[in-house]
User: Fold these one by one.
Assistant:
Number 1:
Amino acid sequence: MKNIKEKEAKISIYINNKEVLYSHQNMLRVINTFFPYLTNDDLNEMSEHINTLKEHRHQQEQQSKLEAKNIPIQSNRHDT
């Protein structure tokens, strides 16, 4: 897969010759439709990309939880 700058890419989703909204369901439907046409190398590269993305999200989630622990509880914030 080639890296494409987001500014250069214009992506539209068509299902049955009709442009559809960018919904989670529509994106998954299109992605799943293309899986059988991808080579093993494509699938391996995609798998690595997915694993990297998941790990990054996990790290961000852990960092967010640590930062949330440092926020003082304002138990009397409505008493002003």
Number 2:
Amino acid sequence: MVRHSEGETWALVMKLSKNDFCHNSPRWTDGKEFKAEKMFDTHIPKHKEYDAKSLAFHKLEGVSAIKIQTNRKSFKDAVVIDFEEPGTPEKLITTNDIKISPKHDFNKKVFWKKWEHEFGHSRQRAPAFMRADKFVTDPAPECRTDAAENKLSGCGKACVFCMQAGDGNGCPAKGAHNDISVGIGLSQSFCGGGNRDDCSSSGDWVGDSRTLVWAKWSCKKHEVGQCLGSRHFGICGELELDDCDTHFVHVVTDEDKAEGAFLQCASVDGQCVAKGPACFGSCANAFIKA
């Protein structure tokens, strides 16, 4: 699913409302799509309804920003995190290899307030951003003075992509008391998400959140291997021959998991067949690359 907004192209890469993407879930880095049939629209799942992931989460190169949209905010008002260099959504979210940009007041108190409005109100002492189990120290957090020590306070638990804040108040201040996780990829344990049934993006001390993860993508850089025409929900052989070369299909390779790839339909010896390799879509269509 691709969305155009104010001259930008955003690819929907994840939907989170359940527990398939809690902290330490192998699905964050397994290189596979997950319930990809749920990724063709912008429907926000109900609480604990499902988690879903596009193959684009792992394969889409050239992503320069991540937008986190919860059920509390519109797409336009959702929090954006920019990066100094492009990468795949997986690399940007699950590693610390690419530096986060200071744009949009990242890691400042005002950014924390925006994050709270997305996920719900939590604690207020020394809030700071955590990515792939580590506090982000560049850009340095405005409110947490000891982030470089990378120590969680009290019962605090690490997360994939979240903010942490402790009991009480303080900005600037050292971390103290008990850090509470707010974001995505939370621990099921106490002071993380706190519930193994919904820790992909909800927290017992914050509230139930249902989250769409968007990736800012420059489709103009990815024209090689581009899928032509419209997506066809079926097989190439069901198309009229005149329509064959202007459609592509989602070919399922694992019926139990609905995993597969987008392939271009092509006319071959008077028949319409799915002729690989798997391809990107146009800006208005699919963007999967196997």
Number 3:
Amino acid sequence: MTERTTADEIIEEMEAKATHVEIVPPSYVVGQPFIAGRTQFPQKVQAAFFTDSGNLLQTFIYMPPRKYVKGFASGKLEYGVYRKDDILLFLYNHKGGAWNIAPFHRSFVPKDFQAVIAANGDGRLPLRMVLVDARTGLVKAVRDILLNKAVTGSLVQHVGEQSDAEFDQQDFNRRVNLLVTKGAERIIQNCSARGADKGE
């Protein structure tokens, strides 16, 4: 009886350890690793709107030049929202860089982390932007901006119309790639809303 109880206790302890998953949150501190223990990332721009952690935009660039980092951190920044069917693109541009495109769909955010799709009391959305060196994994710049009312309204409307039902990630990516091949300048000309942050 004692041996069985001991064995059961050991199994329960092993199962408890096996199901315990430690999630390492990203860091938004300049000079610190974006994800602890990770040193490299693919070059990309990704956005996550209406999450329980806020609205986030993450840019991973391989060895960004000093001018690029400075422009990201404090220079004039232009942004816009483009919508075609269920595809939503957030675009931004700053001094020292070209237009960057971040596709977004509500399905990108797990349901447990989704927040209410609504503007703040002043009709604007806060957006936290982080620039990471894709070669080292270190945070190079962090910037917090308030999106204007027009862009906020477009995001609230378009994301609210996106449905998780029958979402096909591969088809979504294919259609996004077709749009991107037309060039960011053409896309930005057809945005549903645009705005700018003057920086410092």
Number 4:
Amino acid sequence: MILITSLLLAIVSYFILMLLCTNLVGMVVRGFFVSEEIEKLKEGKDTLPLIKNEIKKSEFADNMITLLFAVISLAFLYALFVFINIWAVIAALFFMISRTPDLLWEIRNGKKITRHNMPKTPLYIITSIMDWLALPVIWYAIYTLLR
């Protein structure tokens, strides 16, 4: 009975953990990049001082949001460790690490990554495997918790 229960919980937890981890890492990683249009406006000689001032305010807010979500991500990983176990943290890290190259590609190219336009390099193959490896790791985390 524990085996079936842990399997069902693992499947549900897989999707919840994937959603949470990819969004958390997305908020943190996107905070390190500024769009080219903003950079041009910030350094442009014909840009109004009011616009430059608003860009500075926006950069401060963006940095605070990035810092906030980095702290939330660390707190989330710590909570997984305390309330479940280290295997749940490993599964969450699998999701976070596997999302980072896709996110960087999306930021660089300005469009969502799909199965058709995804680069076929070894890095992307490894990160795709990491996504699927998270499922048995989550199952093991829940199974050891329920035993």
